[in-house]
Amino acid sequence: MPASGAGLLLGVGAGAGRGAARPGPSRGRGPRRAPARPGCLGAGVRRPRRRWCRGPHMDTLTSVCASDILERARRVVLKIGSALLVEASSGMPRRPWLEALVDDIVDLRRGGREVLIVSSGAVAVGRRSLPLDLTGRPRLQEKQAAAAVGQVRLAHAYQEVLGRHGITAAQVLLTLDDSENRRRYLNARNTIDTLLRLGAVPVINENDTVATQEIRFGDNDRLAARVAQMTSADALILFSDIDGLYTADPNKDPGARFIPTVEALTPEILAMGGGAVTAHGTGGMVTKLAAAAICMEAGCAMAIAPGKGTNPVKRLREGGRCTWFLPSHEPHAARKSWISGSLRAEGVVTVDEGAARALAQGGSLLPAGVRAIEGDFQRGAAVRVVGPDGRRLAKGLVSYPAEEARLLMGHKSGEIEALLGYRGRDELIHRDDMVVDTTEERTAS
Ligand SMILES: Nc1ncnc2c1ncn2[C@@H]1O[C@H](COP(=O)(O)OP(=O)(O)O)[C@@H](O)[C@H]1O
Ligand SMILES: N[C@@H](CCC(=O)OP(=O)(O)O)C(=O)O
After folding, report:
1. Where does the record place the PUA domain (predicted)?
2. Atom 3 of ligand 2 has which residue's CA nearest to it?
């Protein structure tokens, strides 16, 4: 899987003659960033490079930046922890809180944003429904059993509260493997993209019942970051029992100072979380900082924000305090650099002149424009795209394995089902999964 990259990128077009070009906006998502605003900084905080944090409001950094980031985001992931969602005494989801959260989600969507929820709570809800000792720490198998029971109830709660607004809830359960194995990663991403395109709200949790100790995320902070990375989200909000990152745990150190913005995970910042971020750390700030590392690398802004009290998103949009972790680049750039830099091309796809022109204009590569295919690759592999004269045009992730791609070569997308026996994607390489080589790159290679 894309260990580090995420985001969307340039598109490429289809073959001439029998193939239609597919220019236009990527997967229905609009322009992702608005122009710069002048900066806003808190005392002692380095000036962010980001254009979204520039303003004259020197003492109101978090409010200005929060509203900027959220207002400009097209795709937002909200992570809800068990403690916020589940009433400890009853083991039931806090209904009024959830309803208010959904009001916030409706507002976000009204502004044209896509919203995904990463929700914990399956174990907390399910524990009470099984004859388990609630005083001790449950063993892994007991937690998995509890999750199996609780997840049904959790999904039902989301279905009801979203359904009141006519919104369809969609349950997606993921394991670490889904984010690290490229095929599974692409499948999960395509499913989530499709759900969003169709107007549903994906409600995502770890697939606790099959995840084992060794492979489980173990913490939904990191799962949420992986989801943000996988879906090229612009912003991830981790709702917590605390309003952000402090120089030390404020519950232990009354002198701890609030940090409004983090631009780089320096050793000093990591130390604030109580030590180095490891893959196996759990809870507290450690997993939140691990999530921040994933997001910042993926070009996604991340916030630790207070979730207690009603309408947490609304409060944030109205200037409520939180800590923002700012990425150094946008999701487009992160994904583009992952495809062009980190992935080895496992095959070569030769396209005709019409397809080459369409690629340059921005659009997806349809099978119709393909003349030849070299290599033995799997679905999701990176391949080099070359023109009829062998010149490099692009690099992208293929939607079909080599043997199927060869069957589709030169055919219209409408023939895919008849040729393969199933209806796959229209594009051999979707424009979002492709980096078009610039003239300089072509000359250099
Ligand atoms: N540097 C820090 N800044 C803020 N909180 C910290 C810090 N170090 C440790 N913490 C602790 O982390 C807690 C939040 O983590 P946790 O309870 O796991 O989150 P969640 O709200 O997602 O359940 C805070 O209540 C606080 O006690
Ligand atoms: N997947 C588990 C939750 C894991 C988790 O990270 O929980 P939390 O720390 O409450 O966000 C569940 O649904 O119970």
Report:
1. 347-429
2. 120
